[in-house]
Write a structure and sequence with these properties.
Transmembrane segments: 5-24, 30-52, 72-98, 110-127, 134-155, 175-196, 208-231, 251-275, 287-308, 314-332
CATH topology: Sodium/glucose cotransporter
Radius of gyration: 19 Å
Structural class: mainly alpha
CATH superfamily: Sodium/glucose cotransporter
Organism: Brevibacillus choshinensis
Largest sheet: none
Shape: globular
Number of strands: 0
Strand content: under 5%
CATH class: Mainly Alpha
Number of domains: 1
Keywords: Membrane, Transmembrane, Transmembrane helix
Protein name: Transporter
Distance between the termini: 35 Å
Order of helices and strands: HHHHHHHHHHHHH
């Protein structure tokens, strides 16, 4: 695997999993609640993200698209593209902020939760200061540690129950899988589109997306198996993996908190850096002031869940619908002669 393919694989897998995947709450809501149907949804989600991701990035490489903004202009034209791009960028920034705040509230109580907001932001600033090289390496290391941690938890299981297909036999699992695809498809595009023009050929995209999708699939399926194995203990928890680790290992909860803070900060760095660089090139701005402004806005959004609890589902829905809008437009363009 060449360097460009490896970079795409790491960032694609990181964005597909999400910055807070180590907590397990997102997987619980979107997949584990639906039992075996949720497992089917996880498989289809992995396939869909890989196929859509490769198809869109291949088009970006062929046409010369270097950012999410240029993709909006290419797909929606000058009339609607700029407005939709601004709206989508706003929801991405807001989503990263509120999900950071929500994750901090889940991982710690009281004044400690504010600390859990600040630490990922500090990690993101340090990583962005050192550029793409640190972001790629940090994402690879955090993903490897996460994979090892889930592997160790999975090995501890003597039995993983497989729920009967009669349980949750409705269409909700399809809806939740589609919503997960829409949101994380958008995040995957944000961090990978700026990389495709530096690749020597489309083969690197295929290898990178294939490897990233495979890693995402393996971690997701292991996580699903773990959540099903501990279902009766964690089904009502907002931090299921933390609860499991506390049962298995001394100080397991704190270990997860440290790893989660690190991974969240690195993914924040990847998203903010990927959003800022095209703006700097397009408008001839200085990178550092722009990043500082974006981080201040992100910090304000991160504090929003502490005051307005419903801000998280509203903003997450907005980002999800922006991703679904891109998916629908892509499918529509594929149908045109």
């Amino acid at each position: 695997m060449d360097k460009g393919a490896w970079q795409i694989a790491v960032l694609f897998a990181g964005a597909a999993l999400g910055g807070t995947y180590l907590g397990g709450y997102e997987w619980l809501r979107f997949f584990a609640y639906f039992g075996s149907w949720g497992t089917i949804g996880a498989v289809l989600t992995s396939i869909a993200l890989g196929w859509f991701g490769y198809s869109v990035l291949n088009d970006c490489h062929r046409v010369g698209i270097r950012s999410l903004h240029e993709l909006f202009l290419y797909w929606f034209g000058e009339a609607f593209g700029p407005s939709l791009s601004v709206l989508t960028h706003f929801f991405i920034l807001a989503y990263v902020g509120v999900i950071t705040g929500q994750h901090a509230m889940q991982m710690a109580d009281g004044s400690y939760s504010i600390l859990f907001v600040l630490l990922p932001l500090l990690v993101a600033i340090v990583w962005m200061k050192n550029g793409w090289g640190w972001i790629f390496s940090g994402a690879a290391i955090s993903l490897a540690i996460g994979f090892l941690m889930f592997g160790l938890i999975f090995i501890e299981q003597q039995h993983v129950p497989i729920p009967n297909l009669g349980y949750q036999m409705n269409l909700n699992w399809i809806l939740h899988a589609l919503l997960y695809i829409g949101l994380h498809f958008l995040l995957c595009l944000v961090v990978t589109i700026p990389l495709v023009n530096n690749l020597p050929s489309a083969l690197s995209i295929r290898i990178g997306i294939g490897a990233g999708s495979l890693l995402f699939f393996i971690v997701l399926i292991i996580g699903q198996a773990i959540l099903l194995a501990y279902w009766h203990d964690i089904h009502a928890s907002e931090t299921p993996i933390q609860l499991i680790l506390q049962q298995l290992f001394p100080l397991g909860g704190w270990l997860l908190a440290i790893l989660s803070l690190l991974h969240s900060g690195i993914m924040i760095a990847a998203i903010i850096y990927a959003l800022a660089l095209p703006v700097v090139d397009r408008h001839d701005l200085h990178l550092v002031p722009l990043i500082l402004v974006m981080m201040v806005l992100l910090s304000l959004f991160a504090l929003l869940p502490f005051a307005v609890s419903w801000s998280v589902p509203v903003i997450a829905s907005g980002a999800t619908y922006c991703g679904l809008c891109l998916l629908i437009r892509f499918v529509w363009k594929r149908q045109l002669p």
